[in-house]
Amino acid sequence: MTLGFRPIRDDDVAATVELWRRCGLLVAWNDPQRDIAFARSVANAEVIVGDDDGQVVASVMVGHDGHRGWIYYVATDPERRGQGLGKAVMAEAENWLKRRGVPKGELLIRRTNTAVQGFYLAIGWTEEPVVVHAKRFEDTPAIGLATVDTVVTALEMLERPTRPTAPAPAGTPTALIRANPPTVRFYRWLYDGVGTPWTWTARRWLSDAELAEAISDPAVEIYVLHVGGVPAGYGEIDRRHGADAIELAYFGLTPEFIGRGYGRYLLDAVVDLAWSAGPCARLWVHTCDLDHPRALGGYQKAGFQPFRQAVETIRDPRLVGLPLPERRTSGVARDDGDSATVTTLPRPLS
Length: 350
What we know:
The protein is of the alpha+beta class. The chain folds into two domains: 120 residues, Aminopeptidase (3-Layer(aba) Sandwich); 198 residues, Gcn5-related N-acetyltransferase (GNAT) (Aminopeptidase, 3-Layer(aba) Sandwich), CATH 3.40.630.30. 23% of the residues lie in helices and 28% in strands. The chain has eight helices and 14 strands.
């Protein structure tokens, strides 16, 4: 046996749910897919699996609420009982909590599951003199299998614009400075500050190591707009695809600076920087119907033209506490300036 413990991966989910079914852990009122997705979406929880040559033979869900640790879904392959898997997976959960400074762990045992009580007593878990109360929130927004669909529009610019760069609004000192590279902590602060109202979640799922690798790549350029010395937004240029397809990967302002004329200035400036490195076949960007209502129009106003539109499935932003904004109509765009000019996409794209 070459047993190892690690966080669950996408391709482990079906096998883990099947393990829970075989161990009798599934009940009608809990959606295991949602439970797994929820645990994976936050920093204070983890689903750990025991991997034996690619086979999931044990699992535990562990997390903390800022006061106590909690353990759920302890499971071991019924055909491997007596091999110490239960004790080993519980030790992994306990160590996970200890590494995060959690002083006490708790778990719940259904009254009908009398057989397992002796196991927990044997490894040092004692019965507490408490009564547990619970309440189910029937009005919680339906998350289904922890995904939502969104209409994504991709736009491209095939040549460098000849227009002058829009000036920065007068009155407050403004600077556009490259963070080369930003720290992970600062980037997360900036990403969340700009993207939280518009359900930006893609980089919330990345570990610090994964995010550091992405934002420290020399082919990734992150330009931060400062207004009066305060970070007000940013644009991120991704040249990792080569000169054939440079991507404007992220762009936006923090809420305090939206509607003050900085959006057009920042977009023009970042577009010019994207083209400044030399010949480029195209510069492209994408937005979706969860984004700012004027995002699509702002990109069109800056010279981008839509070339593809499709429905994509993403992890539900509500799993990390982000409410779904009112969706804009995917075929209608508004510019990102002060005017209310409305343009319509020329045709449905596929």
